[in-house]
Amino acid sequence: MKNIKCNVVMLTTENPSEIALDIKNKWLYKGHKLSYNHQHLYITSSDEIKEGDYIYNIDTQSVLTTPQKSDFELKVINSKDHIKKIIASTNTELYKEKIDKIDLNFIEEYITEYNKGNIIKEVNVEYDSILQFENNSGMFNKQLPNVDKPKLHSDGTIIIHRLQEIFTKEDMEKSYNAGFKDKFDFETWLNKNY
């Protein structure tokens, strides 16, 4: 298991959604609201984009799918910094595809933070490394490179953690003790490095 930093994007939709922004674009609400701007959240990553994946174009702020493309065209798409793979969303139309759901607790936290003026733009997503084998005539004989996939809760939502931007001295000491405990004391390390 590892955590990978991903981006959070909120986009307007014409369809009813679980998130609504008031007309003045100041307050975010959970639930269907008439005459409000409906929104969807998207979690995007730098994961490899493959045929059929949903992608977010940062420049145009649009959601697209990658139709049938040659290997060369997919390499070009993957080399673009402004194109990210969508790994999860509140957009239920994408659930039938390769997109995971966003946890309700995170949606509520996003709304709360947005209304405080703290827009969550980055999160850590838990990933599991999945073993793969080549299948020849029904026999698995050659191990392929592992594939990293977002880890899911039992309800099928991805596991998301907020990025911690400010670390307390206690946080730093806990991390230090996990790695350098036997070399020298924490205070010496802290003074030397910070």
Task: Walk me through the structure.
The protein is α+β, with helices and mostly antiparallel strands and 194 residues long. It has 2 domains: 162 residues, no CATH class; 27 residues, no CATH class. The protein has 4 helices and 11 strands. Strands 1, 2, 3, 4, 5, 6, 7, 8, 9, 10 and 11 form an 11-stranded mixed beta sheet that branches. It is globular, with a radius of gyration of 21 Å. 20% of the residues are buried.
Short description:
With 194 residues, this protein is α+β, with helices and mostly antiparallel strands.
How are the SSEs placed, and which strands pair?
Elements: E1 2-13, E2 19-21, E3 28-30, E4 37-45, E5 54-57, E6 62-65, H1 71-79, E7 83-89, E8 100-101, H2 104-115, E9 122-136, E10 139-150, E11 160-162, H3 169-180, H4 186-193
Parallel strand pairs: 7-8
Antiparallel strand pairs: 1-4, 1-9, 2-3, 2-4, 4-7, 5-6, 5-7, 9-10, 9-11
Counting copies of identical and different chains, the oligomeric state is single chain
SSE order, one letter for each helix or strand: EEEEEEHEEHEEEHH
Q: State the end-to-end distance.
A: 30 Å
Strand content: 35-45%
How would you describe the shape? globular
Uncertain runs with pLDDT below 50, 5 residues or more?
A: none
The total count of helices amounts to 4
Computed over alpha carbons, the radius of gyration is 21 Å
Major β-sheet annotation: 11 strands, mixed
**Mean of residue pLDDT?**
80
The SS-based structural class is alpha+beta
Count of domain modules = 2
Number of strands: 11
> Considering DSSP H and I runs of 4 or more, what fraction of the residues is helical?
10-25%
